[in-house]
Amino acid sequence: MTANRIPLSQLERGIPFEQRHIGPDAEAQAKMLAQVGYGSLDELTAAAVPDVIRTADALNLPEARTEAEVLAELRSLADRNQVLSSMIGLGYYGTFTPPVILRNVMENPAWYTAYTPYQPEISQGRLEALLNFQTVVADLTGLPTSGASLLDEGTAAAEAMSLARRVGKVKGGVFLIDADALPQTIAVIETRAEPIGVEVVVADLSEGIPAEIAERGVFGVLLQYPGASGAVREIKPVIDQAHELGAIVTVCADLLALTLLVSPGELGADIAVGTTQRFGVPMGFGGPHAGYMAVQAKHARSLPGRLVGVSVDADGNKAYRLALQTREQHIRREKATSNICTAQVLLAVMAGMYAVYHGPDGLRTIARRTHRYAALLAAGLTAGGVEVVHGAYFDTVTARVPGRAAEVVAAAREGGVNLYQADADLVSIACDETTLRADIEAVWAAFGVTADIEALDASTEDTLPEGLLRSDAYLTHPVFHQHRSETAMLRYLRKLADKDYALDRGMIPLGSCTMKLNATTEMEPVTWPEFGQLHPFAPAEQAEGYLTLITELEERLCEVTGYDKVSIQPNAGSQGELAGLLAVRAYHRANGDEQRTICLIPSSAHGTNAASAVMAGMKVVVVKTADDGEVDADDLRAKIEQYRDELAVLMITYPSTHGVFEEHVADICAQVHEAGGQVYVDGANLNALVGLAKPGHFGGDVSHLNLHKTFCIPHGGGGPGVGPVGVRAHLAPYLPNHPLQPTAGPKTGVGPISAAPWGSAGILPISWSYVRLMGGDGLKRATQVAVLGANYIAKRLEPHYPVLYTGPGNLVAHECIIDLRPLSKATGVSVDDIAKRLIDYGFHAPTMSFPVAGTLMIEPTESEDLAEIDRFCDAMIAIRGEIERVAGGEWPVDDNPLANSPHTAAALGGEWNHPYSRDVAVFPGGVTAAEKYWPPVRRIDGAFGDRNLVCSCPPLDEYDA
Predict the structure, then answer these.
(1) What is the tens place of the pLDDT at every residue in 204-226?
(2) CB neighbour list of residue 207: distance below 8 Å, 6 or more residues apart
(3) For the modification N6-(pyridoxal phosphate)lysine, which residues carry it (predicted)?
(4) pLDDT at 538 > cutoff 70
(5) For the CA atoms of the chain, what is the radius of gyration?
């Protein structure tokens, strides 16, 4: 007999990537469908998704390709990028990522597939790494409290403006920026200031604050240190003058320079912001990078974003957690002053580990080498008759060549080096950790200068002012001194990773967060030098591959969503929201409807929605949520009528925040449009729509998308993220743009939302690859299996826990909410108890108490296979049985496996005085010793940490010699 013939064309393509990405195979899908009561995926989604929104046409996307084919296509795109030696500077620098950090953090799924550390007991590794980061920032800036990172330097500076306005004594007045600040930072601040009515004034502050500005009132001042031109100036007189005027002073500081220069804190600054990019994080054509903010102690509780603090666990052992957790600005909704809801954790970890690896001596050596090259560069230019503008600088030299700047920059480019043309007469040249002698010589040649670098080295002094040289100790904690060898560093990184729970261990069933597979093929190109080492302000012709990839991704996202134009500049979902709302605002104003400032938001909406609306200069009006979880139609109609002439936009999440497909969404959109408003469809739940429905077709005018949810960019422990904004054609003229890259957005745009023209471009190859690997049919099936998984869980758990909301056919969308409130009321077992007990079973908890207090929101995604989904369901059912034992009086309410969870290995030692056994504690149903995940700490006392706020590593004198 001969085997059945299979055509070569099928054999060549191998197993489709779709089957690698989607967890349940055909047999598993059949079992799940039987449990839910449907015969096929199409039958299920036809019942779940309302007819009125469903799209009839297949996605018009290129056919799916194999992993090998996609990598080859990406390689051809990468080869179209031209990576020259970058001496552009302006906040982006070449850096050398220690391979031990590159391999064991950036390329390690234990780090990049983790979620935000809201469950601190299983996040101790990354929390310790973030505490290291905060210590680096606090020590180098000379300010005692640093956050756990912000999105980039520009947005950090904008957050500083808002903080200064909030905590300062001057009410009204202007926000004053030194003209030597980074141009993109100035532009981002201006974008953020205008909608909230803040006047920004840019002025030369080298001789102090001009009297005419001081007379107007100044609530905040921002200085760059060193300046964008490279100048190192004595800024303390300006800081003192600003304080005399009652202003809050922010210093944008270069951390590498601060290893040699007096810190902003010592100079009197109230706030310091900046980027940690040059601490081992590739430029990546603009991001992602970890911005930072540090403040005086009195402002610690007003700090936007996240803050890691030290607390204790149930045994009194030191443990880390997010301090002041409910203080996160976006949770305050319409009262928020910031919409920050994410950080740049993976990049902050890399930057912190860069400091751990090098220690203070190593960082100083890198800084001295960088400055030395700048000094020699300037000396050669001066000797050759070229005017160097500043006598004191750290890494950046600005040269004046009247009328010849463009010629010099072009000549340098021919010699393999990119410089920055500040204007027709000025050229800036930035040195960094990767600068070589050949680069210096190429720059001299571009200026028409020849010099002997050895001879100059023997005769040239450093140029940093003696009075600004740093003399205090920093990074004194042992962690910055113990890991000099690669062996020690490798083991430290492994030790921290082993404490954590990430997707490489098991399911993270977080509703609204879409924790799905981040395939290795998608991740691999991110670290290729052709993508990683490109400066965001490099000439466009050097980035042909990147720009092609960006254009193709934007076009494919348009096809998926039904919108006409997408901008990928926003580097977080919150930034995408702001960009979308600013586009709506600009559209109304262009039409003469400046009175349209009302933003309607359902009470169940994500907290960022209301916060973003406030930041966009809008007034939030809350719409009630009906008992079935849908928008209250009667209340919505009443609010539309009440605010008809003032209505700017309705923000809704679809499927709803409650995890259901609302049947009347098209009617809701039509009502808003009839009243002259726009509809913003929050794209957080797009994983339930791709291939089935398009927001741009069922009534949406604008949406942000979360590439770190639906399109496979990993969460990285709480960042990076990308939040593109998609709009219909009438809003396209008002998308973000950028002052340094005209092709990054329309001339009529609202200004930059992020510091870099294309945001976090360095991780866009991930989403591009995902779409290319899956094709239109694969993306649709992914959505269908995500909906199947959520409904399967709902059906399995429904006999044990009530499912709070369902939609058509008694079905949920891609997530389900189980209601624990009746159980908690009857037994005293809290939602926290169940979440922590899941750790003993080897799981990360679902989303707790959002959008309804006392509930768990569960989202399996399409990536989890049936065995893992069943393991989770079995654990939840077993926990329900444990709750019954509490309810029946067998276990006391205050002494049972749930109340005492999670249980550590250390908890098993010594006496055991609990009414349940050690085995019940740590090996509950189905958990084996061989596969056990051991949490490093017991339940953490959050209140203790908030009362005793400690947010950096203790100083050396607190340790034994």
Answers:
(1) 999 999 999 999 999 999 999 99
(2) none
(3) 709
(4) yes
(5) 28
What is the structure's pLDDT at 341?
80
The CATH number fitting domain 543-772, selected from 3.40.640.10, 3.40.50.2000, 3.30.465.10, 3.20.20.150: 3.40.640.10
| Amino acid occupying residue 192 | R
Residue among 131, 57, 821 at smallest CA distance from 496: 131
SS3 category, 204: coil
Q: Is the pLDDT of residue 910 over 90?
A: no
Element (H, E) at 818: strand 816-819
User: What is the arithmetic mean of pLDDT over 574-584?
Assistant: 97
Element (H, E) at 649: strand 647-653
CATH 3.90.1150.10 domain extents, the chain: 360-468
- Structure tokens of 251? 């210093």
Tokens 């302006």 label which residue? Answer: 90
- Cβ atoms of residues 126 and 149 within 8 Å: no
Question: Distance between CA atoms of 513 and 353, rounded to whole angstroms?
Answer: 27
661: how many CB neighbours lie within 10 A of its CB?
29
Coil, helix or strand for 175?
A: strand
Task: Give the residue from 813, 769, 820 showing the smallest Cα distance to 791.
Answer: 813
What whole-number distance in Å separates Cα of residue 947 and Cα of residue 424? Answer: 56
Q: How far apart are CA 140 and CA 391, in angstroms?
A: 24
What was the pLDDT predicted at 925?
87
Model pLDDT, residue 893: 96
Q: With b meaning 16 or more CB within 10 Å and e meaning fewer, what string describes 298-308?
A: ebbebbbbbbb
3-state secondary structure (DSSP) of residue 598: strand
**In the block, residue with structure tokens 């981002």:** 188
- Here the tokens at position 442 are 């190429």
Q: Cβ–Cβ contacts within 10 Å for residue 894, how many?
A: 9
Q: Quote the DSSP letter at residue 131.
A: H
DSSP string, 870-904: HHHHHHHHHHHHHHHHHHTTSS-TTSSTTTTPSPP
Nearest to 816 by CA among 683, 623, 629, 686: 629
- Phi and psi angles of residue 86, each rounded to the nearest 5 degrees, phi first: -95, 120
Q: Is the pLDDT of residue 960 over 70?
A: no
Amino acid 2: pLDDT? 56
Q: Which of 362, 367, 420 is nearest to 89 (CA)?
A: 420
CATH fold of 360-468, please?
A: Aspartate Aminotransferase, domain 1 (3.90.1150)
Q: What's the pLDDT tens digit per position in 42-51?
A: 999 999 999 9
What is the pLDDT at residue 355? 98
Give the pLDDT band of residue 847 (cuts 50, 70, 90): very high
Q: What is the rounded average pLDDT of the residues 819-827? A: 96
Would you say 142 and 263 are in contact if contact means Cβ atoms under 8 Å apart? yes
The number of CA neighbours under 13 Å toward the Cβ of 819 is 14
- Residue 955 predicted with pLDDT over 70: no
Asked if pLDDT for residue 957 goes beyond 50, the answer is: no
Q: What is the pLDDT of residue 959?
A: 37
pLDDT value at residue 961: 32
Q: For the chain, give every residue range classified as CATH 3.40.640.10.
A: 543-772
Q: Return the HEC string of 753-797.
A: CCCCCCCCHHHHHHHHHHHHHHHHHHHHHHHHHHHHHHHHHHHHH
pLDDT at 638: 96
Cβ 493 vs Cβ 353: under 8 Å: yes
Residues in the chain, overall count: 961
Within 8 A by CB and 6+ apart from 60, the residues are: 559, 776
Quote the pTM value: 0.96
Residue 536 near residue 286 (C-beta atoms within 8 A): yes
Residue type, 431: C
Largest Cα span, the chain? 98
Please provide the average confidence, as pLDDT, over all residues in the chain. 95
What's residue 453's pLDDT? 95
DSSP state of 64: P
Structure tokens at 722: 């990308």
